[in-house]
Design goal:
The complex is a heterodimer. Chain A is of the alpha+beta class. Chain A folds into 2 domains: 200 residues, no CATH class; 146 residues, no CATH class. Chain A is 56% helix and 18% strand. In chain A, strands 1, 2, 4, 5, 6, 7, 8, 9, 10, 12 and 13 form an 11-stranded mixed beta sheet that branches. Chain A has a two-stranded antiparallel ribbon with strand order 3-11. By secondary structure, chain B is mainly α. Chain B is built from 3 helices and no strands. The longest helix of chain B is centred in the first third of the chain and has 31 residues. Chain B is elongated and about 85 Å long. The chains are: A alpha+beta, B mainly alpha. Chains A and B meet through helix 1, helix 2, strand 1, strand 4 and strand 5 of A and helix 1 and helix 2 of B.
Chain lengths: 412, 99
């Protein structure tokens, strides 16, 4: 133990003695670790948020398709779809996009008279049913009333942009150049802003008028299948999807497909950054290797002296390994800390725009950040392991030389 | 810089990182188990819904994506090969004959 402590002390002294090498490795590895971790935390957070939304999404989303493009779906298909064995519930939805000033908003119309309840969803998800009214994430006001056709609930981002509050009458020019007036009856809170920042929620008929959707059409149909155990759920969903897919001019999207698409979207976007990160990492490994060789030359005399004083080859390799371990851990911890602060405190400027899309179209909302244990351990691994390999070879080459030759060589 | 100071920094930063990690893991765990009536009633599987709009795509990467663009949670070309139940009737509806 004492020997170990002495070797560790000596390694730490080496870290402080070779200041330039320490600084170069710390900066290079720290930058690589912070770049990787900040992208990974944000990308993981977005995928996690998407997966969370997907958990509550319908088992199947049925859309119309016309000329190879997504289009409105006819409501006459509802009865046919409902006949398919395994279908529990079908709900209609009309949704789309609109611009208010420079901001893109999502207008969603839901069928409040025929909406699967929270308790039913919990039951479908296999959770215990809680007999209470759903607690919508509202900052002020109330949720939509099925009886009122002109009431809307808006996201906090929309409310801030328009200066709207509960009771405000909002006049919006629709795509068909008509002016529609809506009463703001509620505003979603900031906790739900990742989902609701750009949202204007209204009942189905209001959305139909807003988008001038014909009476017999909707944007899509939400289909829920009967509750079964998890092992047979996927096959049931596939059977139902196959049956619905027989309907002409329809396409059916399962949850799995949507999840894969989201993962690929954010994976590809963050992958772009990852390529940059790989380049940085390779550069760092080369810099670390180079610095170790340079310092190895400088410390030849020191190695010779240590061997003359009784240090074994393995002692010297251990000292260099301790050094690398401390440097790698420090660089990883610094990089991860910077990544955490950049994402969680500063809100990931620039990177957020890159991963989310056009920044200027969004109302502001805090980005979801997921600091997973997997990412943390991986970042530590990539800052420590390459450094260990980059230092062990030069130090072994130095340590195997005869002390007399090492000291003479260093003097020369 | 003294050797002990380095160890101190290593320890403090590592503890901070793992604390942040544990806190994040726990908060996501809580979030996942809490009921989400808004997501449930809207039913769109996405983060910030406008992100699905073609006009909100990242211009650097997705400029050429126009095919099956308006899919909840979906992104054009990523979808084309992956959707198992699209009924492209036309694709299988042809014959090849000889004169």
């Amino acid at each position: 133990m004492k020997r170990f402590r002495n070797l560790l002390n000596y390694a730490l002294n080496c870290v402080t003695r070779y200041k330039l090498r320490t600084l170069v490795i710390l900066i290079a590895l720290g930058v690589a670790a912070s770049a990787f971790s900040s992208v990974a935390f944000l990308s993981d957070g977005l995928v996690k948020e998407g997966a969370l939304s997907l958990k509550y999404a319908p088992d199947l989303t049925v859309q119309g398709i016309s000329s190879g493009r997504q289009s409105l779906i006819s409501t006459k298909y509802i009865n046919n779809i409902a006949m398919a064995p395994g279908v529990l519930w079908i709900s209609q939805r009309i949704w789309g996009y609109g611009n208010i000033g420079n901001m893109l908003v999502a207008v969603v119309g839901i069928d409040l008279n025929n909406t699967i309840t929270t308790n039913q969803t919990r039951s479908l998800l296999g959770n215990s049913v809680v007999d209470q009214a759903p607690a919508y994430p509202l900052e002020s006001g109330q949720f939509l009333d099925a009886q009122s056709s002109s009431s809307i609930v808006i996201g906090k981002g929309v409310a801030q942009l328009l200066g709207a509050s509960v009771g405000t009458v909002l006049s919006i020019v629709t795509e068909s150049n008509n002016i529609k007036q809506y009463n703001v009856v509620g505003i979603f809170n900031s906790e739900s802003s990742i989902y609701s920042a750009d949202l204007i929620l209204m009942n189905l008929e209001s959305a139909r008028q807003f988008f001038s959707v014909p009476e017999d059409k909707v944007t899509d149909l939400m289909v829920y299948v009967s509750p079964v155990d998890a092992s047979t759920k996927a096959s049931l969903v596939n059977v139902v999807a196959r049956q619905i897919a027989e309907t002409p001019n329809c396409r059916v999207l399962t949850k799995d497909v949507l999840l894969k698409a989201q993962e690929r979207t954010y994976g590809d976007r963050s992958g772009f950054f990852s390529i940059v990160w790989y380049v940085v990492l390779i550069a760092v490994a080369i810099v670390a290797f180079n610095q170790t060789i340079v310092v190895g030359h400088e410390s030849k005399f020191e190695v010779g002296l240590l061997k003359a004083l009784g240090f074994s080859t393995s002692d010297i390799i251990q000292v260099r390994l301790f050094e690398s371990l401390v440097l790698g851990t420090l660089a990883g911890a610094v990089g991860l800390t910077v990544g955490i602060i950049y994402d969680s405190v500063l809100g990931a400027p620039i990177l957020k725009d890159f991963l989310l899309g056009w920044a200027n179209l969004y109302p502001g909302f805090p980005v979801p950040v997921f600091i997973s244990l997997q990412t943390v351990l991986f970042t530590f691994a990539v800052t420590i392991v390459p450094l260990l390999f980059a230092t062990v070879v030069p130090s072994w080459l130095n340590a195997t030389v005869d002390p007399d030759i090492a000291m003479r060589g260093a003097r020369a | 810089m003294r050797a002990r100071t380095i160890l101190f920094f290593v320890a403090v930063l590592t503890v901070f990182v793992f604390f942040a990690c544990a806190s994040s893991e726990v908060s996501w765990l809580n979030k996942e188990s809490a009921p989400e009536p808004l997501r449930q009633i809207v039913g769109l599987p996405s983060v910030a819904i406008g992100n699905l709009s073609p006009s909100a795509r990242n211009p650097g990467l997705e400029l050429l994506c126009t095919g099956l663009y308006d899919v909840p949670g979906g992104y054009c070309s990523y979808f084309a090969p992956g959707v198992p139940f699209i009924n492209f009737t036309m694709a299988g509806n042809f014959t090849i004959g000889e004169k």
